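Consider the record:
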Amino acid sequence: GAFDSCLRYFRDAGMIARLKDYPFAHGARFMIGPDLWLAGSYHTSRYNVQTGRMTAEMFRSFLADTRRLAAEIG
């Protein structure tokens, strides 16, 4: 998925050493560099919503937390 693709890019660019040090989870956040964070979220697909894997509240909370991180960076 997109999360793993970003990790491979960061590894290939020499920004991280090992992919397994950055496990995906909904709401996971990893500082990749001084002004760069990687945040993981489940996709808002119909399947994830209908099965309860992703709720509207989960996504709103994820967005609010991510906005706070972005504001801290600058």
